């Protein structure tokens, strides 16, 4: 039964009209055929997301429940592990563009994603976002705006993340600080004479504080893959997780999926540190006053659950003057960030112009 489940999950969806492979159409709940236009609706699981109990997975991978084998391609250049939901004849790594050898594909176990955030726009739209970004760059070489970027080099990539939920309880000790102001005399010179005046200075009155805080920590988001080369910038790493859909392999059709390389155990350690930060923030709010000090906090987590989720990003590289530059686009929001070239002469003449303006101002000031 388990083998049958794995086989079904890996089977590609073919068009009932022409036999071509169906691919997910971004921004919809459909898979479509690019050749004859046939489309089918993706039926979401009515039960919603399934939060997995954390403890069994940390101890023994949940006896391999909610896991399966997938075909993986490993990039020997940058180390990225990529899963493909379609039959590529040739493929390049989405991170470093190095060729991947299809014959080197291998099977590997992974914890099934519990949810996916589907792409909201297609590859063509991502190219338009890139072109607009290039046109708005300051100090960019003039020829950059004319540089050709083949949209086919832009790949949609699902990034793996862990999310953790837990009930948090913490005892704390610290201090509450309340501001007050005192008048402090000082001496200044006015018209050659010493004059004593006063000014208000802020002081802090500290008092001991202790107590406890508790609450539910929902969807702590932890990156689940190492990106040693060309890491995804923080600037685009903001997704609306309220738009998550229950996992369905049809959402992956036509896109690359990166397998997690940060184990669940390490992800949990990172989420625990984030929970400690949240607990400290709650303690400060509980202490009140104008400022706070938290000397010690004793935190415990219970009812811990987790999900493996996939989040969308477009990733590509372009070449200019024999150098390669990477850029990334959030597949949900359209936020873009990337490396770019600068024009030495534009910067040189801009600095020269500023220096001339300063020199003119100084010259008039001295006259």
Helix content: 10-25%
Number of helices: 5
Radius of gyration, taken over Cα atoms and rounded to an integer in Å: 28 Å
- On the 0 to 100 scale, the average pLDDT is 81
Name the beta content range. Answer: 35-45%
Name the structural class: alpha+beta
The number of E-state strands comes to 17
Shape: flat
**Uncertain stretches:** 1-11
Order of helices and strands: HEEEEHEEEEEEHEEEEHEEEH
Question: Between the first and last Cα atoms, what is the distance in angstroms?
Answer: 93 Å
The major β-sheet equals: 12 strands, mixed
Explain this structure.
- The structure is a single chain.
- The protein is 21% helix and 40% strand.
- A hairpin with a 2-residue loop joins strand 15 (291-320) and strand 16.
- It has helices spanning 2-10, 54-60, 123-135, 264-287, 344-366, and strands at residues 23-24, 30-32, 39-41, 52-53, 67-74, 81-84, 91-92, 99-100, 106-111, 115-116, 155-190, 193-223, 245-246, 256-258, 291-320, 323-330, 336-338.
- The longest helix is centred in the C-terminal third of the chain and has 24 residues, at 264-287.
- Strands 4, 5, 6, 9, 10, 11, 12, 13, 14, 15, 16 and 17 form a 12-stranded mixed β-sheet that branches.
